[in-house]
């Protein structure tokens, strides 16, 4: 089984939460150019159990975090605010100093913000935090066995759907993934499924129900939701990286836009 819970956190969750909240407050205080307006640090502990009459008896614990903070900057009568929200799986990914530096930078930079000049030839760069909200509801939906059997998927196996350099996988065992677990909501093993390889759509994602309908096997994509029912859904979508850094990418662009954040990005799952 893979590690989904941090035992050091489980042994003292209240103490860990208090320490992290204090660290965030101290780090914000180091930035004299901004001041906090709102803050919330939440620690989640999930205990899951799956049992049935055939002898299936599974259990697992999971720890993850929720951060929501707002900082404001003010200058010459202008006021701006950075309001950041994120779920984070591992404590090693909290990176409080780096995270607060980014909040402060966004708040201060927004004071000098200008409407960009239109340019149809400009290159647009989307960071992972924006891209996940654009891709997951659309490609993640059309790749499901449910969408295929309801005849609403636009993806056909072995059809070219993206650039040759684009590879997308759904990895239920992804280290640091919020949906990481050894098994899905039906007891089937989570696994890594290559959905798109070099631009070619290769594999659909199935739960038990739609796998039976498609005369195939579950890919471990039966996700049990809060009301106890199981839905066919993605686990952790991952785009395999290229061979250059973000800084190198930006340095090669003459004119372009870097989209730091989109407010309430919610694309239609049918049209994108």
UniProtKB/TrEMBL annotation:
It holds the Pfam family PmbA_TldD_3rd. Residues 121-262 form the Metalloprotease TldD/E C-terminal domain. One of its GO terms (molecular function) is metallopeptidase activity. InterPro entries: Metalloprtase-TldD/E_C, PmbA, TldD/PmbA_N, TldD/PmbA_sf. One of its GO terms (cellular component) is cytosol. One of its GO terms (biological process) is proteolysis. PANTHER family: METALLOPROTEASE PMBA. This is Metalloprotease TldD/E C-terminal domain-containing protein. It comes from marine sediment metagenome. The lineage of its organism: unclassified sequences, metagenomes, ecological metagenomes.
């Amino acid at each position: 089984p893979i590690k989904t819970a941090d035992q050091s956190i489980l042994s003292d969750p209240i103490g860990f939460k208090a320490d992290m909240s204090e660290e965030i407050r101290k780090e914000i205080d180091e930035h004299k150019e901004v001041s906090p307006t709102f803050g919330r640090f939440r620690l989640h502990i999930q205990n899951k159990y799956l049992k049935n009459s055939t002898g299936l008896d599974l259990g697992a614990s999971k720890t993850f975090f929720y951060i929501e903070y707002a900082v404001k900057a003010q200058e010459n009568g202008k006021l701006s605010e950075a309001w950041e929200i994120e779920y984070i799986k591992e404590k090693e990914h909290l990176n409080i100093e780096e995270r607060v530096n980014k909040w402060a930078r966004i708040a201060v930079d927004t004071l000098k913000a200008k409407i960009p000049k239109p340019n149809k030839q400009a290159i647009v760069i989307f960071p992972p935090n924006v891209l996940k909200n654009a891709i997951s509801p659309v490609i993640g939906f059309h790749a499901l066995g449910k969408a295929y059997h309801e005849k609403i998927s636009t993806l056909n196996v072995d059809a070219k759907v993206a650039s040759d350099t684009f590879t997308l996988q759904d990895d239920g065992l992804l280290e640091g993934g919020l949906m990481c677990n050894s098994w899905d909501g039906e007891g089937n093993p989570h696994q890594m499924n290559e959905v798109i390889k070099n631009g070619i759509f290769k594999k659909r994602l199935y739960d038990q129900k739609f796998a039976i309908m498609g005369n195939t096997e579950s890919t471990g994509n039966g996700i049990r939701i809060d009301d106890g029912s199981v839905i066919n859904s993605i686990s952790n979508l991952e785009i395999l990286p290229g061979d250059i850094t973000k800084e190198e990418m930006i340095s090669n662009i003459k004119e372009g836009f870097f989209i730091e954040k989109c407010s309430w990005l919610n694309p239609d799952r049918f049209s994108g």
